[in-house]
Amino acid sequence: MTPMRNPSFDQMQTRQLALTVACRYCHAPAGEPCTVPGRTPAEPRRPLENFPAHHCRTNHATRLRRLQQADQQRNETP
User: In the chain, where are the structural domains located?
Assistant: First the structure.
């Protein structure tokens, strides 16, 4: 996996969370980093370096985590 350039702790946590779901924007599977097109049409896609993941992937992972936590709380309370 290509590391991000000088990531903060929050960015590393966000990236780990985002890697739990597939990206709807670039179609990267869960566990793989988001990608962007190469600089030329002949160049292959390259991993995203300046951000933890695409925004839609981060939002999706955050929402799923929130829903899982709500389900756990619902199941714990009688």
Answer: 18-76
